[in-house]
């Protein structure tokens, strides 16, 4: 089986590691490299996978996953440059880092895929957007799609959409968690015990998301079904409009996309 090296085992690298194991990859086919010794020890003990310095982990791997912060990418690429084989696929999950940037810092002709996953990958409900680099073959892309498919849904899009993908689905869970927190806080304000408010909010989010997926209806139709004339929902929605919550989402998501562009240091 293809050996997979995960370089950087923080939130995303760790999520990928556990998803691969859940989906049946053998621990001996996965090697991780993490510069924080305590995290490495914990993951190696928990998952029985091997660990090695980045150079060693990358050498001989069929797929090398780069899961470090964008700021750490130049150093990592310099470290592994001479360890990438001719057929190795390099998959980067870093926000803002383009395939061109990676290709310029890896051996000429390296197959590269830029991926934008999200943290629901931890529970196999991820959303990953993939974009192929210049030297990425159909087989490379299929490998990357299969890899990302182990922890959720996958879309393959032109790279020009990656900043939008980062802003919508990459960072998206943060907005949903923020809304969740706010709704729980509102329940507490109305006198509910925090645990009761949490259960109500979480099941409501889960139910609403499931409804959107299963009915295929536009969210505005589903919202109208909840909003009885002169009732409670319209009273609340009017406040959300008055406080420009929709406009705030547009501005916020634009800011995330802008930040994704800024993180890209060019080629
Ligand atoms: N957290 C998220 O929701 C998402 C993160 N991403 C991207 O994933 C990448 C990683 O993000 P997180 O996992 O959140 O960060 P993190 O900080 O949790 O993990 C990064 C890990 O890389 C390690 N590291 C850095 N340089 C290293 C090196 N040279 N050798 C070995 N290990 C090294 C760090 O010690 C750290 O544990 C980022 O580029 C981010 O843009 C993408 C989608 C979602
Ligand atoms: O906030 C970030 O920069 C990363 C990329 C997408 C989600 N988390």
From TrEMBL:
Assigned EC number: 1.5.1.2
Where, if anywhere, are coiled coils annotated?
A: none
Q: Where in the cell is it found?
A: Cytoplasm
In terms of one coarse class, where is the protein primarily found?
A: cytoplasm
All copies of the Pyrroline-5-carboxylate reductase catalytic N-terminal domain together span 3-96
Pathway where it operates: Amino-acid biosynthesis; L-proline biosynthesis; L-proline from L-glutamate 5-semialdehyde: step 1/1
Cite the Pfam families for this sequence: F420_oxidored, P5CR_dimer
Which superkingdom does the taxonomy of this entry point to? Bacteria
Q: Which UniProt keywords apply?
A: Amino-acid biosynthesis, Cytoplasm, NADP, Oxidoreductase, Proline biosynthesis
**The reaction(s) this protein catalyses:** L-proline + NAD(+) = (S)-1-pyrroline-5-carboxylate + NADH + 2 H(+); L-proline + NADP(+) = (S)-1-pyrroline-5-carboxylate + NADPH + 2 H(+)
Q: Name one GO molecular function term.
A: pyrroline-5-carboxylate reductase activity
Span of domain Pyrroline-5-carboxylate reductase dimerisation: 159-263
Q: What class of enzyme is it?
A: oxidoreductase
Q: What does this protein do?
A: Catalyzes the reduction of 1-pyrroline-5-carboxylate (PCA) to L-proline.
Family according to the record: Belongs to the pyrroline-5-carboxylate reductase family.
Protein known as: Pyrroline-5-carboxylate reductase
